[in-house]
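From the pipeline queue, job 12 of 40. The input is one protein chain; the requested action is below.

Action: predict structure.
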Amino acid sequence: MFSHSAVIVHGLADVRTALQPGLPVTLLSAPGAASYAGVGWWMALIAAARAEFPQTRFDDVLDCGTAAGRALEALRAGQRQLHLAPTLSAWTRAAAIAAACGATLHPTCPPALDLAQPDAARKLRSWLERDNAAKLR
């Protein structure tokens, strides 16, 4: 489902921290970020990350929480991986729309290191190395 270790990022400083080691990673927005930070914010953040770290392989997932409308907005903007709460009655329809766009709507998020937690930056390299090694087995 997710090809790389996941790290929750809250802004450009976190993105830089997550990408600095140069290891494959899945950048995951904070829970519900599509509603309070916005789709445009996420798209700009990811564009900046791709420009600043062109050699680092990473995926990105925007968490839309329970906001199906934000998920549809993100799909229209070109976002290709989203999380939306699977308990929503609109989930199946949103997943079908995502698939038609060539995108993936995830019902769950992977285990992730949240860079807002104390000492998370210090734990980052070992998190990425351990989790990526496990995925290769």
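Job complete. The longest strand covers residues 58-63.
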